[in-house]
Specification:
five-stranded antiparallel beta sheet; 16 helices; about 50% helix
């Protein structure tokens, strides 16, 4: 009896070994064809012998564990197992076949896919006879060659900060420290104004319009009504007064961050309720104290130092942007169309990490992120193209980011944000931006490597465009004429009283007053 049992176990082991050998030999029939840019259609045929193997394996497994009345474990006949577990086993066999065959088709054919294959298992059934055939589509990483990366031509601007730049920055500082002041009833909307409005957004194919009440709208060439970007918003609102209604129709990009708006037309109506302009602050002792300086000259010196540091960062950023432009302009390939919109959220997280790493204030980061979210389809494609290029470049240069490097960058960022590094890293892990931050650090290392061998030419800086703040200042001047006349009289009295001071101080004061008078005008 024992010999018969031993012989049965040997036969079972032999059968299992034979099945394993057969399973290794049986290959699925796979065909792949191009059906679009970076898109493949994968057709899989699972042969009857393979199906039978998986079915036998499933029944062998369940026989070992199943409790069947009248039989010891592992001894129940197949027909009883089929009667009792047939439906569940058929489902399990189907899922196993689809998962293993789709994974093998991708791996064996070295498809570098983006995302996971979408196999609708509910619509696929195992035939009673013959092969199981099914197909699915996947988007793959684009294939392309990188351009020559040695001796990339780069221009580096000289660092120059003059008095005119300092004065312009001082004017801007006074403006940004100002207050939003209501315009008079007969005044109309001007660029850079803020309006309080009720708005409605009527999306095509949607019956009811979305109502937005008492929202703030900033009058800019590329502004927002709620979360919707409106090109030439300053032209749409031009000449409007309180109580007026303005309408426009916009086309939303297919990569817009709100899925329900993507690729649709939206009729926008804006009812102006109130108009405000930004009234610059007076440069007085109170304002100087806020900046921790005792006089205007010291404030200007600080502004100059700040401009020099900012200019140095801008020059560096400009060089990095030239590297990206060179790589983009000299690399040509088609992008995966379907993945562009879905990939936008990942690009946004990378951009967020990039802005934070530059040390920008949170409100400035949020402002730029809103613009990025509403970016055109072309802009999204450019970012996605850069991602693929930099990914391949980092691979070619064998650039990696170790955990020590990543933690060091996080520590630097934490100091800028006045946070603990551990907390910042935990936040990144929680919101999903840690991997994007690692990619950003890797990209920076790759660009740095290219700049080491770049052909750099030093050039004179371009004159910055003057900011149009005079209209706002004139509006403030009209309103404050009586007040300023009184202030001028008071200043003249102070000037006479201070003539007893030294010649140096007198000269400084005159310079200051000349600046103030220029601002008043």
């Amino acid at each position: 009896m024992a010999d018969e049992k031993d012989q049965a176990e040997m036969n079972e082991q032999s059968r299992e070994g034979h099945q394993t050998a057969e399973q290794e030999e049986i290959k699925n029939v796979v065909t792949i064809e191009d059906v679009g840019p970076c898109k493949k259609k994968v057709t899989v045929e699972i042969l009857p012998e393979k199906i039978a193997q998986v079915v036998d394996n499933q029944y062998d497994q369940i026989r070992k564990d199943a409790d069947v009345p009248g039989f010891r474990k592992g001894r129940a006949p197949r027909r009883l197992l089929e009667k009792r577990f047939g439906k569940d086993i058929a489902t399990q066999v189907k899922l196993t076949l689809l998962a293993e065959s789709s994974d093998a088709a991708i791996k064996d054919n070295e498809l570098d896919i983006l995302g996971e294959p979408d196999v609708d298992h509910e619509k696929i059934e195992i035939p009673e006879e013959g092969s199981l055939k099914y197909d699915f589509e996947v988007e793959v990483r684009p294939e392309f060659e990188l351009p020559n990366t040695e001796g990339i031509p780069i221009e580096r601007q000289k660092l120059v900060v003059d008095d005119e730049q300092v004065e312009a920055e001082l004017e801007q500082l006074c403006r940004l420290s100002g207050t939003w002041t209501p315009r008079k009833e007969d005044e109309t909307v001007e660029p850079e104004d803020q309006i309080i409005a009720d708005a409605s957004l009527k999306v095509e194919d949607v019956n009811e319009a979305e109502k937005l009440n008492n929202i703030e709208v900033y009058v800019r060439p590329n502004g927002f009504v709620g979360s919707v970007p409106v090109e030439n918003l300053d032209e749409v609102l031009k000449g409007a007064k309180a109580g007026d209604k303005k309408q426009t129709t916009i086309d939303i990009p297919k990569t817009f961050f709100r899925e329900e708006y993507r690729g649709k037309k939206i009729d926008v109506e804006i009812e102006v309720k109130d108009i405000k302009y930004l009234k610059p602050v007076e440069l007085n002792e109170s304002v100087l104290a806020q900046y921790g300086v005792k006089d205007e000259d010291e404030l200007k010196e600080r502004i100059k130092t700040s401009l020099e540091a900012r200019q140095e960062r801008q020059v560096r950023v400009g060089m990095v942007e030239q590297v990206y432009k060179y790589m983009n302009d000299n690399t040509d390939f088609e992008l995966p169309t379907d993945v562009t919109a879905n990939y936008a959220s990942n690009l946004l997280r990378r951009q967020y990490a990039n802005l934070i790493s530059r040390g920008l204030p949170k409100e400035k980061v949020q402002e730029q992120m809103e613009t990025l979210q509403a970016g055109s389809e072309e802009e999204a494609k450019q970012q996605l193209k850069s991602y693929f290029i930099m990914d391949k470049l980092a691979e070619k240069l064998e650039i990696e980011v170790s955990n020590d490097e990543l933690n060091g960058q996080i520590a630097t960022l934490a100091i800028q944000q006045n946070q603990r590094p551990e907390r910042l890293r935990n936040d990144m892990e929680r919101n999903g931006s840690l991997e994007q931050f690692r990619q950003q650090v890797r990209d920076e290392k790759a660009v740095e490597k290219l700049l080491e061998s770049a052909k750099i030419t030093e050039v004179e800086p371009k004159k910055p465009a003057k900011k149009s703040v005079k209209k706002t200042k004139k509006a403030a001047a009209k309103e404050d004429k009586p007040k300023k006349a009184a202030k001028k009289t008071k200043k003249a009295t102070k000037k006479t009283a201070k003539k007893k001071t030294s010649a140096d101080k007198s000269s400084t004061k005159k310079s200051k007053k000349a600046t103030k008078k220029k601002t008043d005008k």
